[in-house]
Amino acid sequence: MPRAFTPTWFFFGDSLILGVNDNRMPGGWVSRLALLGQEAGLYRFPPATFYNLGARRQSTADLARRWRQEVDCRQMPGMIPHLLFCTGVVDMAAPGGGQPLALDKSLFCLRDILAEAAPLAPTLIVSPPPVADPAVRRRIAELGAAQAALCAELGLPFADIHAALAASRGYMDDLSDGLHPGPEGCTIMAELLLAQTPVHDFLRTDMDEEEN
Q1: What is this structure's pTM?
Q2: What pLDDT shows up at residue 26?
Q3: Among 187, 171, 121, 131, which Cα is nearest to 14's?
Q4: Confidence of residue 29 (pLDDT cuts 50, 70, 90)
Q5: How far apart are CA 111 and CA 105, in angstroms?
Q6: Sheet holding 49-54, edge to edge
Q7: Residue 174 Cα distances to 132, 138, 168, 185, angstroms
Q8: pLDDT averaged over the chain?
Q9: Backbone dihedral region of 82: left (phi > 0), alpha (psi from -120 to 50 degrees) or beta?
Q10: How many CA atoms lie within 13 A of 91 on its CB side?
Q11: How far apart are CA 56 and CA 14, in angstroms?
């Protein structure tokens, strides 16, 4: 018998969502967070469904152009969507030798995303994580603070883990390429996220409803 409800989480972002340097678990911190949430009793597998929709070197502007189509093409009867966005490192780091995206442009694109996402489903923003380069890290921190202010303005939850990760020697030492965490860093990030109330609330489902 098909289930009446399928709680579904969509994770949007760049290669830091994708888990590029994690050679132990495909999906990096997203996969680890999904498992930790189940262990915490927030949902059950099945029916809980997680889509990792990170794409390498994609800016917030790129994300704004594709996220809705990614959700729409995965629609099915009974799906209860939840949308998480973690974006901005590509904007500020400009991998490949390009120029960083202006902070106001990055925020404009995020505002555009949230204006459409928030009425559609529960929506959570996660701060862009730190990188090894100090100058880029400062730009990312500034963007994260601006993202937090935007979420406060819009009444949306924001999970800020930038400072905690920057202060974590385990996380920073695991950035072997200066940008992407390996297995240890992904584990640290997932654990920090689950400990935050906005993330815990975003993941929690009604178990009785899942059984119907």
Answers
A1: 0.95
A2: 94
A3: 131
A4: very high
A5: 10
A6: 49-54, 6-13, 79-86, 123-126, 158-159
A7: 10, 19, 10, 6
A8: 95
A9: beta
A10: 31
A11: 5
Q: Which residue has 């939850």 as its token pair?
A: 157
Output the six-digit token pair for 131: 């990188």
What span, in angstroms and rounded, lies between the C-alpha atoms of 138 and 97?
A: 18
Euclidean distance between CA atoms 144 and 129, whole angstroms: 9
Helix ranges (DSSP H) in the chain? 15-18, 28-39, 60-72, 89-93, 103-120, 134-154, 162-166, 169-173, 183-194, 197-203, 207-211
3-state secondary structure of 50: strand
For 52-75, give the secondary structure using H, E and C: EEECCCCCHHHHHHHHHHHHHCCC
Give the tokens for residue 203.
């993941």
Q: In this structure, which amino acid lies at residue 115?
A: A
pLDDT digits (tens, 9 = 90+) for 125-156: 999 999 999 999 999 999 999 999 999 999 99
